[in-house]
Amino acid sequence: MSDNTNTPSSNVGDSKAQLPEILRNPEFLLGAAEPHQFPNDDLIEIAFAGRSNVGKSSAINAICNRRKLARTSKLPGRTQQINFFSLGETARLADLPGYGFAQVPLPVKKKWQDTIHKYLADRENLRVLVLLMDIRHPLTDLDWQMVNWAGDSNLPTQILLTKADKFKRGKVLSTVLNVEKQLDKTPGQFAVEPFSSESYLGVNEMRTQLAEWVTG
Q1: Average pLDDT of the residues in 130-151
Q2: CATH number, span 21-215
C-alpha cells in the first residue's frame, strides 16, 4: 500500500487497454444476504466497506471503469447484502452494506450486521479491506470500530478519504496527514489516500493497487 498523497488525474474515461488485466471485464456475480450464500472457492477477495452514503458504489464504479457495475443511490442503506464482483479468474470485489444510518427496520439492520461480522471475521478469502470515509467527517465512532477491528485482526487496510473534490488541495493534504497521525497510534496495517469519483483523484492509483494485491 502506498501512503503518499495522490495528485488529481483527469476523468477522461480509460480504454480497456489502459486498465490492469483484472479490471477489463468486471461483472456482478451474486448478492449474499446470509453467509451460506458466499462463493465457495479460494479466490482472493478485496472488501469495500464504509458508512452509508460515503460514496462506496461510486468508488467501485470509477475504479472498475463501469458506470453501473455497483448500484448507486442518494438514499442511505440501498445496498442490503454483500455484493460480489468478478476481477478476472483469480479475484473478486466484495461490496459490503454501508454501516450507520439506514432507513430499514432494526431486525433487518441487525441481520446485515451479523452477516458483515461473519464475513469479516471468518472469510479466509479476504486479503485486504478498503475502508471508505468522507474526507469532511473522517474517523467517526463507527469508523473507529472498523479500524480497531482491522487492527486487531491484522488485516491490511487501505483507507480512502472520499469526496476529496469538496476540498482545496491544501485542505486535502492536511486532512490526510491528520488521519495518518491518528492511525499511527493504532496497531495495524493502514494506508491513507484521498479519493474522488468525480475528479478521479486516486482512481488510477487504486487500479494499480488492486492489481498488485491480486497478483502479489
Answers
A1: 95
A2: 3.40.50.300
Residue 130 burial class via C-beta count within 10 angstroms: exposed 0-12, middle 13-18, buried 19 and up: buried
pLDDT band per the 50, 70, 90 thresholds, residue 1:
low
| Per-residue pLDDT tens over the stretch 169-203 | 999 999 999 999 999 999 999 999 999 999 999 99
Phi, psi of 161 (to 5 degrees): -90, 100
Residue 155 in this model has a pLDDT that exceeds 90:
yes
What cell was used for 208?
494499480
Q: Are residues 156 and 2 in contact, defined by beta-carbon separation less than 8 angstroms?
A: no
Kindly state the greatest CA–CA separation across the chain. Answer: 46
Task: State the Cα–Cα distance between residues 24 and 6, nearest whole angstrom.
Answer: 23
Sign of the alpha-carbon torsion through 59, 189, 113, 176 = negative
pTM above 0.85, yes or no: yes
Considering only CA atoms, which of 28, 157, 138, 130 is closest in space to residue 81?
A: 28
Beta bridge partners of 93: 46, 85
CB 153 within 8 A of CB 147: no
Burial 29-56 (b: 16+ CB within 10 A, else e): eeebeeeeebbeeeebbbbbbbbbbbbb
Answer yes or no: are the C-beta atoms of 160 and 133 closer than 8 Å.
Answer: yes
Residues with Cβ within 8 Å of 56's Cβ and at least 6 positions away in sequence, in order, are 48, 49, 50, 70, 79, 95, 98, 132, 162
